[in-house]
């Protein structure tokens, strides 16, 4: 095969990288160069998949020489140091106009830094979120690339050839925005994923403890829910996990799994970033904290002595409660997604990105972990109103919240009275009530802040900034706005 035969290259051939390389190679028009630091993986991949027509390279020089210009390579190694190391090597052998893509779960500020540094060499750097796990990488992920407009000219058609395809035939990839925009949106995707998973877990816990249904029976409930407005990959796999029986003990697998949830950090990034942007992401935050709480067995052990309601939680109308939980789950899910899209909008404003929220919702319809029919409704909402200030107020969602809020309240009340933790359900309801409140107790907070810190306050009845002389005669004066 001639030297510069490949139009795309992959560096890093662990499962995700290998699967992505195989996906690329399976598409018409792609010839794929592959490189891995340890040669064994390269040899194994090439030997295992002769049909792929891979162009193996055993040095970065060979890798560069095997790529036609503009050379385009996707890095699929661990985020952080390993990614930086590969970038440094590729910059040595690539030339201006070439394209380096980081396909890992990089933290978007790192991507902004890397894009700026690499751009100084004339080489394009693209941070691309790739969602869908190993199966998605092989058969069609949802892809969220950032980077320059120039890079998209070459990269766009290649990524479109491997992305998942939504029901309307559209590939689940779009040029999200410049520099770190792609990794920012992938980060929020993961945050929403955390909220979605936590809400489903709370729904399961409430039904199990409130109705005594078995995991297998609850699996049937989720399978039924998956035929309606809650249809999604996460609901589908939840039914499968709940149906699974542990071969060793014969018990439901979910009952032998240790109840301490791990996290690789993308949910935490989403919450930290939302805090810095001043965007409430209650569902995502509570989902992230719920994982943290579950992972403190030492505290949970000592806290067991603390009293609870003391009464056995048993609902009178099990079917009615299950339907209430379904409605509470859908309402809370709407809030979590509404907050996630709020964060994307705020991030775009902060980092000078132009991000089309409708386009983001459309590429999440297939391939990614949060894929769901629900995303079609979000796409419809942004198509109707691109500048929609609050997703939850779009007619479809407002109607669902109107229909579901009574059930939602009943579920949060029942969980509270039963002493069953439902942090995502209850924080989402609190956010909903806060958002629609005529008056918030923030007025009192302003008074407190002014009392101890002279931080001033505004008034509802006149312009200006005010401070009360609390330690003096308590008259009110006009003041400089000290925030
Ligand atoms: C995806 C997933 C993936 C995520 C892992 C681990 O979009 O394919 O979100 O990127 O990193 O599932 O996630 P946590 O360990 O943070 O739950």
UniProtKB/TrEMBL annotation:
Q: Boundaries of each 6-phosphogluconate dehydrogenase C-terminal domain copy? A: 182-471
- Give the pathway listed in the UniProt entry for this protein: Carbohydrate degradation; pentose phosphate pathway; D-ribulose 5-phosphate from D-glucose 6-phosphate (oxidative stage): step 3/3
Q: Does the keyword NADP apply?
A: yes
Annotated EC: 1.1.1.44
Q: What Gene3D superfamilies does its record include?
A: 6-Phosphogluconate Dehydrogenase, domain 3 (1.20.5.320), N-(1-d-carboxylethyl)-l-norvaline Dehydrogenase, domain 2 (1.10.1040.10), NAD(P)-binding Rossmann-like Domain (3.40.50.720)
What the entry lists under Pfam families is as follows:
6PGD, NAD_binding_2
Which reaction equation describes what this protein catalyses? 6-phospho-D-gluconate + NADP(+) = D-ribulose 5-phosphate + CO2 + NADPH
Keywords annotated in UniProt: Gluconate utilization, NADP, Oxidoreductase, Pentose shunt
Instruction: Give the record's subunit note.
Output: Homodimer.
Family listed: Belongs to the 6-phosphogluconate dehydrogenase family.
Q: What does this protein do?
A: Catalyzes the oxidative decarboxylation of 6-phosphogluconate to ribulose 5-phosphate and CO(2), with concomitant reduction of NADP to NADPH.
Q: What is this protein called?
A: 6-phosphogluconate dehydrogenase, decarboxylating
- The organism encoding this protein is Microbacterium nanhaiense
Q: Which gene holds the coding sequence for this protein?
A: gnd
